[in-house]
Structures are given as structure tokens and as C-alpha cells.
Amino acid sequence: MAAVPVTAEIAKRAAVLAWRDLPDDLVERTKQCLLDWFAVTVAGAQDELTDILVREAMEDGAKGPASLVGRTEKTLPSAAALINGAASHALDYDDVNFAMGGHPTVTVVPALLALGE
């Protein structure tokens, strides 16, 4: 029997996962990280770095359906992931807390939002 690729196994498990299946402490930590990400992204959305990336995306014809956090412009999903990710890092804050090692939200959420939208 052939081994199932890791990505396929993760996708299979994720497809049947529901919030009710997750431990309460994990759900709470996830909410805290998402709130923290959103707050720093809204603040970073007005940074000069974000302005430059938005102008460049628009000049390159990347207007599309994906939202930019804290802004009115909409871009292609690929541009939105880049711009929202950059806005998340613009002020150099990250979702760090004692309950979680690392700060993955900035690298994951912009892509998920762009694709989900």
C-alpha cells in the first residue's frame, strides 16, 4: 500500500474537523492570536510600506475581489496575501504569548483570508 502524502493527510483530517472537536484552551488561544493579528494589521495598514505595496499592486493591474485589512482597496488574492502579510509586520509586532511558541498568525492568516474570500 502506498504512503499517503503528508499534505493530503492533513487536508483529509482538516476537512472533517469542527470547532466543537477542539479543546477550549486551543479555541481561546486561537481567538487571542487572531484578535492580536487583526489589531496589528489594522495599524500597519496605514504604514508607508503598505501604501507602496498597494500602489504597486494597482499599477500592475492586480485589482480584484480580495480585501485589504484596514483599507478600501481590493486586489487579487495573491496581492492581498502579500499586502496583508506586510501590513501585519509593518510595525514589527507579532502575536506572541506565553501559551504558544512562535507567532504563526502573520504568515498564515493573510493567505487564508485571501483564499477564503
Description:
This protein is mainly α and 117 residues long. The protein has one domain (20-116). It is 58% helix and 6% strand. It contains five helices and two strands, in the order H-H-H-E-E-H-H. The protein has a two-stranded antiparallel ribbon. A hairpin with a 6-residue loop joins strand 1 and strand 2.
Summarize the structure.
The protein is 58% helix and 6% strand.
Helix content estimate: 55-70%
Count of DSSP H/I helices = 5
Give the overall silhouette: globular
The helix/strand series, from N terminus to C terminus, equals HHHEEHH
- Helix and strand content put the structural class at mainly alpha
Distance between the termini: 38 Å
Strand order of the largest sheet: 1-2
If you average the pLDDT, what whole number results? 90
Radius of gyration: 16 Å
Total beta strands: 2
> Please, how many domains?
1
The biggest beta sheet, please? Answer: 2 strands, antiparallel
Q: Beta-strand level of the residues, as a percent range?
A: 5-15%
Low-confidence stretches: none
Task: Describe the secondary structure blueprint for this structure.
Elements: H1 6-15, H2 24-44, H3 48-59, E1 63-67, E2 74-75, H4 77-89, H5 105-116
Antiparallel strand pairs: 1-2
Helix pairs in contact: 2-4, 3-4, 4-5
Properties at a glance:
mainly alpha; globular; two-stranded antiparallel sheet; about 60% helix
